[in-house]
Amino acid sequence: MNAPFNPGKIGLREPFVAYVCDDATAETIRGVASDMGWAQEKVSTGGLRNAVQSLSVAASPQILLIDLSESGDPLNDINALAEVCEPGTVVIATGQVNDVRLYRDLVVSGIQDYLLKPLNPASLRDALTHAQAIFNAPKVIEDTGTRPHCATAFIGARGGVGASTLATSIAWLISERGPRNTAILDLDVHFGTGALALDLEPGRGLTDAIENPSRIDGLFIERAMVRASDTLSVLSAEAPINAPIMSDGAAFHQLQEEMRHAFECTIIDLPRAMLVQHPHLVAEVQVAVIVTELTLAAARDTIRILSWLKSNAPLTQVIVVANRVLPAAQLEISRKDFEGSIERKIDYFVPFDQKLAAQAAKLGKTLAEVGKTSKTTAPLVDVATQILAIGDTESGGPGRKKRAGAASLLGKIGDLKAMMPKRAAKTK
């Protein structure tokens, strides 16, 4: 049922098969199918459930028409259908729900068209003719071999600094302005917001991959990724919080490998705990973006993460981004003190814009898309540009100053703490 696609089945494909829920719809489809030279007996009743059972043991047709009228959760049911459909099958859905949101979500999930019941013979004929043209069209395989893959990990120095928000925004910028075929891999399996930020349902792809790493291949990636646009896809999850994820990291590494072949750019939203649990995840990442805030705790953890990257990923280019930056008078630590403590410059400062953040959340869009002319977006464009430049030149050089050893790190943190009372006294 879940075996990889077998190209040998293509010659056995029926030109058209339909699974519907009622006799009236079946009769309408049979009439149009007959006019197009297709066998009427290929129109069956039983709806989506019958389709999944039948296609799990038989080759998929060239064109598949599926009735969703009896489906309580159309999107999840379509995902189940995708598990048994071979690549290249053109799928048309029909149903009784007249909802633009449902239509959009179905199209994003891979459905070619959605027809409202009762079916109009002329509209059905047009849809089937268009589907036939799509199936018979020459398949264009883009050559991405001349452009090196760019893998970037976003790591929050502290929880809540906005690393996930920046990751989705910069992924959107790269996919739109590159334009590059871009994937977001959100490795916060229980609380990830990669799909949520783009107003998408995460699906079960990531949890399925973790539970069964042997299934991960190119076909799995094609089916598991949730498309946000023609050039941006997301692999995220909302695993139950009473179900701990047990993994040795093999699934995460395999996902990275498959994405390297399927996409031009991968943006990995990497929870900092992953550095401890699965250090190998950063081994082949070209860029690590540390997202921080100007606070004492964030300074301490930025120092530790920089030191960790130096030891475990010495060829990875590091970019430090200060996010949600407040006016100087409201900062817990000044820019000068923060940079002195981490022994390097902060590369980019993203000003805090509460109104823009709220608007983006309400619209289910990224900061970069909603605030195209905002001062908050300008540094994000610069980060995206630098990531693409590093990827294009395959530059792995760290290009940064030497970090302090463990003893000196503790000393720096102590020095920084010592600054706090003095600063507080000055503000009284």
Bulk shape: elongated
Taking Cα atoms only, what radius of gyration do you get, to the nearest Å?
25 Å
Number of domains: 2
CATH class of the largest domain: Alpha Beta
Give the oligomer, counting copies of the same chain as homo and different chains as hetero.
single chain
What is the H/E order? EHEHEHEHEHEHEHHEEHEHEHEHEHHHH
Question: What's the count of strands?
Answer: 13
* Proportion in helices: 40-55%
Which structural class should the secondary elements be placed in?
alpha/beta
In what range is the share of β-strand residues?
Answer: 15-25%
CATH fold-level assignment of the largest domain? Rossmann fold
pLDDT average, as an integer? 83
Largest sheet: 8 strands, mixed
CATH superfamily of the largest domain: P-loop containing nucleotide triphosphate hydrolases
Number of helices: 16
Known CATH architecture of the largest domain? 3-Layer(aba) Sandwich
Main-sheet strand order equals 8-9-7-10-6-11-12-13
Keywords: ATP-binding, Nucleotide-binding, Phosphoprotein
Domain Response regulatory: 15-132
Protein name: Pilus assembly protein CpaE
GO molecular function, one term: ATP hydrolysis activity
